[in-house]
Amino acid sequence: MTKILAGDPVRFLFALPGFHAEERGAEVALLSVADALAMAGDEVTVIGSGPPRTGPAYRYRQVKAINRRRFEKFPKFPPLRSETSWEDLSFAAGLLRAYDPADFDITVTCNYPFSHWALRRGGSRAPRHLFVTQNGDWPARSDDAEFRFFRCDGLVCTNPDYQQTSAERWRTVLIPNGVEPGRYASAEGNRAAFGLPADRPVVLMVSAFIETKRVLDGMRAVAPLDGVHFAVAGDGPMRDEVDRLAADILPGRFTRLTTTADRMPALYRSADAFLHMSLLESFGNVFVEAMASGLPIVGHDTPRLRWIVGERETLCDTQDGPATTRAIARALEIGRGHPDPRAQDFGWPAIAARYRAFALEVLAA
């Protein structure tokens, strides 16, 4: 492998089936890093299943994949443990054909196992591989089933817990996710555009409709607050359950919507408080987006979340329904204010620079 000096461009490849097809946390985060690296002068290629876009500084290649929604009713077993694993398998088949290991110095993904395995091929020609714990650190710390085949040259840990767990086993670095603070701070709210009422307080959740996000528990926590409207931006296999529960406990006070990344700042600025019910997010871009929008945040009180958002009286044990309802009520009393200055620490150019520094460390090892 050619020696890379600090000033030389690094040839990065970012690969994930959801790139240009989805607007979720992992996709938004890694594409933002890729774009910032390309704008700073590195040679960055992105491979995803969605169509090309105008605007990004990176090069893009489209590889077809079968969307995870098609697999929601498929059987689940190792290593095809979820609809996302099925989607990843369909993507990896095309990735193997589209990817020449000799073209890159560093590959990056957060999907395991199939995209990860595809990027690891190449023998002596294989580039160094970074795995990002966007979807959890289980592949890096488990030796069960397919996880025993996990290998990486560098592990990007999105929170201190993951780094502490993996530091003895892998070369690690602590790099959080980021945000464009200015986009959220300067956006104007537009409730009419999102179908939200103008005369009621609005609690916003931005979440996939899957079990671990606990959207149903969030609905139950908002329901006792008379006159409060609950909006959830997202989609997933539990959408029908969400709709049924909304009709039962939040009639006329619930909005389920999907929107594009460019409209998210306006959506945040259209709300009065932010709620997220996941017990242990690997990072949670949504918290930084809410901070940048000036929203009070209700979330599950853990050291990991306080590391991101700081000490807040509206953090609570979200497994306690009445306590969560009280925290939401308190957040609405506080109301939307000025953007949290902490959000400035998560700007994408600074985050991307930390990725680059770690890539150089891995290449020099």
Quick tags:
single chain, about 375 residues, alpha/beta, Rossmann fold, 2 domains, seven-stranded parallel β-sheet, five-stranded parallel β-sheet, 13 helices, 12 strands
Number of domains: 2
Strands ordered across the widest β-sheet = 3-2-1-4-5-6-7
Overall CATH class of the largest domain: Alpha Beta
Query: What structural category arises from helix and sheet content?
Result: alpha/beta
> How far is the first residue's CA from the last residue's CA?
12 Å
In angstroms, what is the radius of gyration? 21 Å
- CATH homology superfamily name of the largest domain: Glycogen Phosphorylase B
Stretches where pLDDT is under 50 for at least 5 consecutive residues are none
SSE order, one letter for each helix or strand: EHEEHEHEHEHEHEHEHEHEHEHHH
Describe this structure in words.
With 365 residues, this protein is of the alpha/beta class. The protein has 2 domains: 186 residues, Glycogen Phosphorylase B (Rossmann fold), CATH 3.40.50.2000; 164 residues, 3-Layer(aba) Sandwich (Rossmann fold), CATH 3.40.50. The protein is 34% helix and 14% strand. Strands 3-2-1-4-5-6-7 form a 7-stranded parallel β-sheet, sandwiched between helices. A 5-stranded parallel β-sheet has the order 10-9-8-11-12, sandwiched between helices. Helix 7 packs parallel to helix 8 and helix 7 packs across helix 12. The longest helix is centred in the C-terminal third of the chain and has 17 residues. The N and C termini lie close together (12 Å).
